[in-house]
Amino acid sequence: MSENAVSELGRRELTRWFWRQLTSMRTALMLLLLLAIAAVPGSLVPQRGVDARAVETYFLDHPKSAPILDDLGFFSVYSSPWFSAVYLLLMVSLIGCILPRSFVYLRAARARPPKAPRNFSRLPASASFETDASPDDVVAAARKALGRSRIDVADREGVREVSAEKGFLREAGNLVFHISIVVVLIGVAVGTLFGYRGSVIVTDGGGQFANSLPQYDEFSSGTLFDTDDLPPFALTLDKVTARFQPFGSPQAGAPREFRAKGTYAASPGEDDKPFDITVNHPLAIGSTSVYLLGQGYAPVFKITDAQGNVVYNDAVPFLPADATYTSNGIIKVPDAQPEQLGFQGFFLPTAVSQGGKELSTSAHPAAANPLVGLNVWRGDLGLDEGTGQSVFILDKTKMEQYQDGAKAFRVSLQPGMAADLPDGGSIEFTELRQFARFQIGSAPLVKVPLFGIIAGLIGLMTSLTIKPRRTWIRARQDGSRTVVDVAVLDRVPRDDLPADLDDFLERFKDALGETEEKATT
Amino acid sequence: MTLENLAQVSNYAVASATGILALAFVAYVAQWGFARNVAPERERVTAGSADELPQASVPVERSNMAGGIGLSLTTLATIVLLVGVVTRGLAAERAPWGNMYEFGCAATVAALLVYLALVRVWEIDWVGPIITAFGTVVLGASAMVYVPAGPLVPALHSYWLVIHVFGAIISGSAFFIGAAASVLYLIKSRAERNTPEDKRVGFLWRIPASAKIDQVAYRVHAFAFPIWTFAALIAGPIWAQYAWGRYWGWDPKEVWAFITWVVYAGYLHARATAGWKGKAAAILALVGFATFVFNFVGVNLWVGGMHSYAK
Fold first, then answer.
1. A477 and A409 in a common domain
2. Number of helices (H) and strands (E), helices first, in chain B?
3. Is B170's Cβ below 8 Å from some Cβ in A?
4. Distance between CA atoms of A323 and B301, rounded to whole angstroms?
5. Domain housing B67
6. pTM over 0.95
7. ipTM
8. Number of inter-chain CB pairs under 8 A, A vs B
9. Domain count for chain A
């Protein structure tokens, strides 16, 4: 035999050994616990897929450790190689466990109950009694008492032997549960690969959105999703309602109701239909759903440049930064002459001045005393460089801030007020609108994981409640009496087996008509 | 009664229940303490006929009485706490489990109800000290995150709040009873290994054998696990799909619910695997309960995320 053949054999043995290890219950258990441990860091460190902004903040707060954690995949734990490795190994182990067990089960489901063991007293629970009934009557009574078990009757040298087995559904439930886990994971994978999700800010009072890629503020989609396949609906937002617990009451300022109303057309040319989206009640357009994820204030500004032209007249969403809706926003005015203008500042829905200081704070999230404070820059907004720019970030590298003596120049405006700009021109806070932040997305086959997990739950409950039980009864003639031996065995050890045997004996004797006999003796 | 009155009644009831439960704990400790030098009861069979039964000694009588008082006080605390939870719901005009304080109260009353039910079925009064001690601590800690009765944030305006959180409360209560039984299993099985026959005195030897305790723990967990599966992996994702547009998003609360599920799945497997039964399985059950408690306390107060309903 050549050395090659030996190593070939060795390799096959090794592979088989490895496979047996991987599919053993002990390994599955280890992998399961490893999965639990591997999931922990993702809950303690911000995740890119959950909150990308929190990850950026983490980088700023922990400049030393963040890059190391990033290299280890801690900011996207659930798609990291090590997390994937654990659950893929678990999947292989699971499938390697299910397949052989399914074959064993299919064979066992057709098998007859095993023959009665010779010595009943060795079984965990057994009993004997005598009766006047004939062995045939005993067998008939046993059939009745055993109910829906699978029953075989044998005749061994004048001794009647009954072998019964029930509880096959336990293993079936077990297999269904484990197969359903695989189904759920496949469903999740398909939904991720073919789905998309994006978010967009739309202002009320007629703000519009058409479902195409450039309109989104944020967008992500599965690798197999084609963005040309975005369903071509469009919506117009008429009114955003936000209600808060009133001032002075318990939990003042706590949000109570968010609602977005407007109209939508499912595809171009179709009639407009009204919509009314609240949290928990998304709008469904075909396979796509539109969710109301957040809202905030969008002051409308009218800006005139030094030459007297109206160069800006639009609503500007200010993003809320805290529970009182102290919000931050940016205005970019590329058309202003002679130089482009940029504004950056805050919005306070209920401004209250603090102890004579100039800077106010917001006391309540409802717009009771709205106030905008803006600093102003002039120069080049950097919009012509071709790279996409966030509407929420002002690039000040080529801009110069207006000063007011030693301090930065600032305009403070309430609705209806206007202020002059240092080099001529003006800014007017014409009205206050609100914006809605919608999440728009579709995950195909979302029902697959749902039905998978429901089937799994049913399987789980079946496997946890059904007892796989074997019962053997031996009846032999002894003079005019019949001696009956009974034994029971569970595939899963239980401590209440003797009690169950007592219950069975009672039913058995009932079927034999023994109870009356007992009463008479 | 006005809503403010109802809220007031609820507060008094919860505070009273906390006090009564603490007293119940004292009574249960006394039950163990009085019997500290008592040898275990012999099997009834060896006692022969009824008149030959040994007379109960004074320490046994005292111990039994203290146990009876403990059970009565626990029952009373449960009723009063139930009143507190119901009036809280009436005062807020919604299901009374919308924030951390309310979840603490509702989960405690559920755990006490499960305990009392199991005392009737399986006579598990021996976990009484652990149940009442932990229950008192949970109620006291809930008072630290108290919020006045009132409506909820819009994200919680859904009947899924009733289903999803109720499932979490029921399974959490059962996990708790299971954990308490597992603690006693570890203590008892250790004692069974290390204590010679003639030194076996005290209440520990009056409670069931460790194998029996293990059986109780397993059954409670086997009851809780499917409910947890439903609450965390079915009802939760359905609601998340409606509210947030994704059924699973690795939010910290979801991560820890998943971890709890995985650990208890490991417990059920461990019971079926030779070599992992007994001690290792009991420790897994305790780890599972620890992850559940961390999800409630740690994630709510220190981690945050979309499930932050603490305040």
1. no
2. 9, 0
3. no
4. 17
5. 1-96+124-151
6. no
7. 0.86
8. 135
9. 3
